[in-house]
Hints:
mainly alpha
Amino acid sequence: xxxxxxxxxxYWAYLVLFMLLIASFNAIIGFVTNKEYGSTNFQIALFTxxxxxxxxxxxIVLYFSAPYFKMWAEEGMGGVMSDSTLRxxxxxxxxxxxxxxxxxxxxxxxxxxxxxxxxxxxxxxxFYTLALIVVLSRIPWSAWF
Length: 145
């Protein structure tokens, strides 16, 4: 089961990253060019929110089924924190991805309350770009390539 979930999590991450890039650039361009916020912009923001939350659910299943999770019992807190690979997979990656998804969720929720286009784009640009930076900072790049 672990291998299947890991495969899905790894390849779904490409979709999340792609959508987060599209949503961030769309929001930045919309803000800078004073575009009118339309249904396409809403759909991009919503789809980014949906795929990131699906990735979170897949990640939670992966986290508890992964061999790295068992290292908490075997190595203890000190052992996990002293090993950079274990720390990345058991602490840094999950925590930072949860923060990124929280940023996406907050940005999406806040943008819906804005009444005009410029503040909508500004809110999405800030929160989605911050989420993109957080995601890029803690992707285990060695496992991707």
